[in-house]
């Protein structure tokens, strides 16, 4: 039985699950939720896309007592992006439970506003370990009432050096709590953390789908270094290239590949750790709202990126180690759709491919690629284009105001308006590419929520 209704969940949570359109549990949910709802500690091997957020989210919301104004659940994530996504998912799951207070606390953000919003303890905190530790130390956050601790993407947190911070946090919160640990990989140090912070955990590993067909198809392509870019460009011309993630091992290659693809007529953007937070946010917004077809990223920058159902992931370079490779390919083939993960491999990179083969335990699926002669400029533009409005939540601007202005005065059909993201001081809206300039002119000429706001397109 995999219906959510077989679980002892509050009606408010079953209602959210229904609103979200989850007709049945994903394997990770079916295997972990019964134990989590009994209060057991759980260690689960789960990739992004497996439905792990809803699994721990439902469990922690089930045990939440809203009338008790104390911090009751703490979710630790490796990056701000992931923390934001987890918060969003939890808010949706909690939509039918009135007055749940949830706060996201991440590093890289000023401390002042966080302190101001902590005058009363929230029920749930989602955050990065360093910043959460700081608040617990300062006494601006109180861990004495915590019933559930979630370590999300625990392997990534260890990679990023958060091991000590996590131990310190565990020492500062209520002694008796449930610990739910999620990790895409199970290296020894994860088992070590589990031994330190968990009691007799239920272990959940989701096997490959029962029908024997892997949800991810892997292909390895042998290519000469000088033809790598041509190979990449060719692989990106198909339907799947409309929403693809490309990994490079090095930051400078990320920029070079993005520039070259852009010059060849692709809507491609780079994402790496050297970028300002605002630029990173803008790139992520454009990739999620389909204004950017191809995102080229380093492994570090792609952590926490949560875009569902990516049809294609390409390793432009073979990953340095098999774990990183596993993480890369885990970005595709999600929620029931088969994804394609292609790895380009030059002769010099063969030893790294062999390492992957060893971990995989079967021969790598090599396939030939016949490079077609250059055809001049191929246009592979994303279907949407993003407009930026220089006003946001602080100006009380809501998605509905933007949609209203576009479909009202500006005369667009709702179908031509895509995702709307409202940040504190700016808002982004995706428009069908061919209509973007018209929408821009009309918005500039008219008003949004009765005001003249500055609007421009994102290149
Ligand atoms: P996650 O692994 O938490 O990043 O979730 C991946 C995606 O799967 C998210 O977009 C969820 O909304 C979606 N999802 C989670 N649970 C289910 C479910 N039972 N059925 C369908 N989609 C789901």
TrEMBL record:
This is ATP-dependent RNA helicase DbpA. Residues 228-380 form the Helicase C-terminal domain. One of its GO terms (cellular component) is cytosol. It comes from the Bacteria. PROSITE patterns: DEAD_ATP_HELICASE (PS00039), HELICASE_ATP_BIND_1 (PS51192), HELICASE_CTER (PS51194), Q_MOTIF (PS51195). InterPro entries: DbpA/CsdA_RNA-bd_dom, DEAD/DEAH_box_helicase_dom, DEAD/DEAH_RhlB, DEAD_box_RNA_helicase, Helicase_ATP-bd, Helicase_C-like, Nucleotide-bd_a/b_plait_sf, P-loop_NTPase. A motif (Q motif) lies at residues 2-30. Belongs to the DEAD box helicase family.
């Amino acid at each position: 039985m995999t219906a959510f209704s077989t679980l002892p969940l509050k009606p408010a949570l079953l209602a959210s699950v229904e609103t979200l359109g989850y007709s049945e549990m994903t394997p990770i949910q079916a295997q972990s939720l019964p134990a989590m709802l009994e209060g057991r500690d759980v260690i689960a091997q789960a990739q992004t896309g497996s439905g792990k957020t809803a699994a721990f989210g439902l469990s922690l919301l089930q045990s939440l007592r809203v009338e008790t104004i104390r911090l009751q659940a703490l979710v630790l994530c490796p990056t701000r992006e992931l923390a934001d996504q987890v918060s969003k998912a939890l808010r949706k799951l909690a939509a039918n439970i009135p007055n749940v207070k949830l706060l996201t606390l991440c590093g890289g953000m000023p401390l002042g506003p966080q302190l101001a919003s902590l005058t009363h303890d929230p029920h749930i905190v989602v955050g990065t370990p360093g910043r959460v530790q700081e608040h617990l130390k300062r006494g601006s956050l109180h861990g004495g009432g915590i019933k559930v601790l979630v370590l999300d993407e625990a392997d990534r947190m260890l990679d990023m050096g958060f091991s000590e911070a996590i131990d310190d946090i565990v020492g500062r919160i209520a002694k008796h709590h449930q610990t739910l640990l999620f990790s895409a990989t199970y290296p020894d140090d994860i088992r070590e953390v589990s031994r330190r912070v968990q009691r007799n955990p239920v272990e959940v590993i989701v096997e490959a789908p029962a029908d024997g067909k892997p949800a991810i198809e892997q292909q390895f392509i042998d290519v000469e270094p000088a033809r790598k870019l041509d190979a990449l460009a060719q692989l990106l011309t198909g339907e799947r290239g409309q929403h693809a993630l490309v990994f490079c091992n090095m930051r400078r290659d990320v920029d070079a590949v993005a520039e070259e693809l852009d010059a060849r007529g692709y809507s491609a953007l780079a994402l790496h750790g050297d970028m300002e937070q605002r630029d990173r946010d803008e790139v992520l917004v454009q990739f999620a709202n389909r204004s950017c077809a191809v995102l080229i990223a380093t492994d570090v920058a792609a952590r926490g990126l949560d875009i569902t159902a990516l049809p294609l992931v390409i390793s432009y370079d073979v990953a340095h180690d098999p774990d990183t490779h596993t993480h890369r390919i885990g970005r595709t083939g999600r929620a029931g759709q088969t994804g394609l993960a292609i790895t380009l491999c030059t002769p010099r990179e063969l030893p790294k491919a062999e390492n992957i083969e060893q971990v995989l335990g079967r021969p790598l699926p090599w396939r030939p690629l016949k490079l077609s002669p250059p055809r001049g400029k191929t246009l592979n533009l994303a279907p949407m284009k993003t407009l930026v409005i220089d006003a946001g939540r602080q100006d009380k601007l809501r998605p509905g105001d933007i949609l209203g202005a576009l479909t009202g005065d500006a005369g667009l059909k709702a179908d031509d308006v895509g995702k709307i993201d409202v940040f504190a001081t700016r808002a982004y809206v995706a428009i069908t590419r061919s209509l973007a300039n018209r929408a821009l002119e009309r918005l500039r000429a008219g008003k949004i929520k009765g005001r003249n706001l500055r609007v421009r397109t994102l290149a």
